[in-house]
Amino acid sequence: MNASHSTPPTVLITGARAPVALHLARLFHGAGWRVVMADSIRHPISAASACCSRYFSIPSPRFEPSQYGDAIDDILTAENPALVVPSCEEVFYLANLWMQRGFTHTLFAPEFSLLGTVHNKFKFIELCRALKLETPDTRLIENVNDLKSYSDQAHNLVFKPVWSRFAKQIFICPSAEQLAQINPTSRMPWIAQTFVRGQELSAYAVARNGKLVALSVYQCRYRAGQGAGIYFEPATNGAIHKFIDHFITGTNWNGQVSFDFIEMQNGEVLPLECNPRATSGLHFFQRPTPFVDAITLRSGDGMIKRHKVPQTLPLAMWYYGLPKALRTGKMVSFLKDLNQAEHILEWPADNGPKRGQWRSFLEMITRSMRHRSSLQQASTYDIEWNGPD
């Protein structure tokens, strides 16, 4: 990853549609790297950034995997990046490509099999147990008969697919009518997990060769419906730090990884699921050189510091948060929260993404209408990874 003073190293960041990809681009650019980006949409917010030297619109990894692989091959040949950093679920397709095609460029992600294990909500819990980490009781459901055996206990359980995102299809202590909507199969299994009361916390971490180098714990004050967060407050929890440090060491993790936890009244935590990719906790890291040095192992011992001001996406807050504030009579606190938070798309000398977000938003609305899906579903439709089949 070293380069001469006259030629900065190049990083390829994929998943350019995501705010976290934009943030990664800004951090690498601020640390003196040349940034190129790729994604399977036409107008991602990152493409409008002054930090992005070149953007490649490529085929969908989910629906055109062979063409996607050829496009990645072409980019690697043309740009010769010193590092490839995924940001979204395309990480699964990239790890598979590296395994199948033998690419020698450095991919900042674990091997494909480990990615698949932790993304599977049941296998993730099994892995935690193997590492002697505390977990909520979690059972695999592969058919309707398995599901029926939990009907008497459903009021104390949470049901969700092993592969899902944005809290889609989650049933918390469901009624009999809700339980009847679930149709688990061996190809698309579900889990039944003990419902644990407490505060939900999330964490984003960066590891290099089994060493934790960056950690951000936070909570989501506002969400897009029931799922993705749109307003993030920093938090601190020593039990989460200890859990993640043990997990990363035990798996020899290399790359980005994120978790959802429940913090119980006694301060202890239980893991709910793992996302082997970037999440919004990344936005709390705003010093480019220390962050990039941590990724490239140029920094010394110790964790890098994070920012401690709430972060938000104003457009999403107005779209999702305002209607809820009006319904619940919490307009004053909504405006106060919005005013005190920093805006994720804002960055010194980089106003392009704030203007470009409208074009990107329009593209997602068009996709949503075309596929008759929600905006959240449209935002990941072409890059989702839902298991090996």
Secondary-structure map with pairings?
Elements: E1 10-14, H1 19-30, E2 34-39, E3 54-57, H2 65-79, E4 83-85, H3 90-101, H4 112-119, H5 121-130, E5 138-141, H6 144-148, E6 157-161, E7 171-172, H7 176-179, E8 190-194, E9 199-208, E10 211-223, E11 229-235, H8 238-251, E12 255-263, E13 269-275, H9 288-295, E14 311-312, H10 314-328, H11 331-340, E15 342-343, H12 352-371, H13 375-380
Parallel strand pairs: 1-2, 1-4, 2-3, 14-15
Antiparallel strand pairs: 5-8, 6-7, 6-8, 9-10, 9-12, 10-11, 11-14, 12-13
Helix pairs in contact: 1-9, 10-11
Describe the structure.
The chain has 389 residues and is an alpha/beta fold. The chain is 36% helix and 22% strand. The protein is built from 13 helices and 15 strands. The protein has helices at 19-30, 65-79, 90-101, 112-119, 121-130, 144-148, 176-179, 238-251, 288-295, 314-328, 331-340, 352-371, 375-380; strands at residues 10-14, 34-39, 54-57, 83-85, 138-141, 157-161, 171-172, 190-194, 199-208, 211-223, 229-235, 255-263, 269-275, 311-312, 342-343.
Brief account:
By secondary structure, this protein is an alpha/beta fold. It has 13 helices and 15 strands.
Distance between the termini: 35 Å
- Please outline the major beta sheet: 7 strands, mixed
CATH topology of the largest domain: D-amino Acid Aminotransferase, Chain A, domain 1
Structural class: alpha/beta
CATH architecture of the largest domain: 2-Layer Sandwich
Shape: globular
Q: How confident is the prediction overall: mean pLDDT?
A: 92
**What does the oligomeric state look like here?**
single chain
Task: Work out the radius of gyration.
Answer: 21 Å
The fraction of residues in strands falls at 15-25%
Low-pLDDT windows of residues: none
Q: Looking across the biggest beta sheet, what order are the strands in?
A: 13-12-9-10-11-14-15
CATH class of the largest domain, named Alpha Beta
Q: Please give the domain count.
A: 3
